[in-house]
What does this fold into?
Amino acid sequence: MRRAVALLVAIVVASPAFAHKSSDAYLTIERDGTALHGRWDIALRDLDNALGLDVDGDGDITWGEVRTREADIAGYAMSRLGVSSGGARCAVKPTAQLVDTHTDGAYLVLKFDGGCPRPGPTLVIDYRLFEGLDPQHRGLLNYVENGHSDSIVFSADASHRVVGAGSGGPLRQAAAYLNEGIRHIWTGFDHILFLLSLLLPAVLVRNPPSWQSRPSFRASFVDVAKVVTAFTLAHSITLSLAALSIVVLPSRIVESGIALSVVLAALNNLFPVIRDGRWIAAFGFGLLHGFGFAGALHDLGLPAGALALSLASFNLGVEVGQLAIVVVFLPLAFALRSTWTYRRLVFTGGSAAIALLASVWFVERALDVGLFSALAAP
Amino acid sequence: MRPEFILIVAVSLAASCAPAAAKPFVPDRDDLVLERLPEKGDPALAELKRMRAVLLTRPRDLKIAIPVARRAIDAALRLGDPRFLGEAQAALGPWWNDDDVPPAAMLLRASVKQSQHDFTGSIVDLDRVVARHPELAQARLARATVLTVLGRYGEALRDCEALVRHASSIVVVACQAAPASLSGNAKTAYDDLVRTLAHPGGDAGVREWALTIAGEIAARLGDFAAAERHFVDALALDPTDAYLKGAYSDFLLDRGRPREVLPLVAHDTRNDVLLLRLALAEQGLPDRQAAFAGHRAEIAARFDAARRRGDSVHRREQARFRLFIEHDAAGALALARENWAAQREPADLRVLLEAAHAAGNRDALRVAMRWVDDHGLERFVAAAGLDRRS
It folds into this structure.
């Protein structure tokens, strides 16, 4: 039936006026929660250039030549499209291959479905089709979410794009980034352990050669407040600087530096060097942690249109998550501060364990090896 | 048995308005031909494809990359098919971003950029080549051409003069003719060119190029009989040159002879520039209205596809299309002004003037007329019938 229509059209329009144009592919991605549905129209002529579809070399591409290479085509194309949500890669698999026409000739229509491990405020897309074969190739994306659609052009110079920022309105957007900030601090064990290492001594007073319980809750509260405020201030500064690309540090240096900061903070509890000035350490190392948050935010994708709002929401989320930890920690630690459990098990044992674990991270991150990856932070 | 060739033409009007709206389908026969590749029946392209396959295995081998890029650029110009420019750029990939690359690679790089209408980038590359190899005629000639497109005639003429000891006299004179004719010396430049062309022989390609320039200058001077002679002579030397066909089509359209445009470009509908000429010719012919409607929709679809990818290579043609086919003077003027900011050929000036007239925009008209005054182009304006409209 459809072919009959196609034939009829061919007869009605006498001159087949396919255009000579630069290479484009037309990509549609529709997101529904964690589910993705896609359609990718790729010119057969371009696929022939990349994969050699014209097996018999007669200058014609037949459906048989396309059909028998279905797996190669899907493999080639899908390996050049990366989609991630909430910093985690989505699994995408082809579901069907059809044929269609555009102004310049016949296209393969690759349909695909995907699932993301978790929903994120945006979708980060890496597009590298025909990389190295045709620098003039463009990927024209139509991104659809909540009945709202966006047009984005991928090129060799712009292969990494963040989409979906405007799909839910600013309030929903802010809430999503706030949520991501909280999630990041709660699952980012290195940040929590750094903070805890600095907070553990807050309910104690150093009286060489031993520690004694701090008499008032107020004094402990003030100590905690100083450390948390300094840490917050410092990482907010560097998070903003890095997210706005004003200062950029290599992630290997940042990540190993963060690990080292955890080691030093924990060791300081066992062999005190800094006593009253822990807030200074919190500030200094906090600068480094800010770069770490920025790395997570980058993986998440910062939408160009709503940069300030997303950045502020993410930062706020980090603070909210951090305060929640403090609110649970402080009363508990204060109540237990005179017990053997707190003194020996939590304070001394905990600090030693943290120092050991963070040393493993440091070696791993600094040398870029995965020997202890089972123990490492996610 | 040869597979039956069935074109899946979705160039119905509906599909043209929304290029991606046609229904995708799964063919039910393996021998259904979906696409005819450009190398079919074109040995030069088949050879290019073989060479590209070799280059893919040794991408840093300049001895392979240079001929691949050169052939790809030739194909792009000959067929008006920009996909080959992408292939040329890919072949030059290892030499695309560095400042210090072999002159042959730099020249081809400049040529690709010129064809993509990145004139500024092209000039930067050519400046580098000329600075290191001032004797390289190709670089001087290429730079003179780009400078002429940009309306920088004085600099273009200096490059042409530098060719004197390094190129044949016809190359030097033809190089000078275009910029000289656009900076107040049209008659002298034309006479010099005709005198040089009177000597027979020489490279056919160079001669065809020089004849095309002569035809364009004669038309601008209002000597239509001479212009036609030059165009016809040039076509005899190369009946496939897309640039020449475009120039001759414009001449015929101006002379009120649209029917003669039809056979000239009937088989070039894949080329946007020539399809526009065909549509402009059909527009004025009562018996060609059905074809005109189809081609009009097709051009609109192609310009829409170009817009979606962020392409502005054919802004001049888009302005003409908007003005003369869509009758949208304001839209045409916006395009013509954008185009004028990027390139300054007589055709660019002309569409700017025409759109400014149609839109009644005094500001744009002043800009265009100042250029006419500054460059002594009054006869061109008169020959194109533009003076009567003000």
Summary: Residues 312-390 of chain B form one domain. The CA atoms of residues 190 and 213 of chain B lie 9 Å apart.
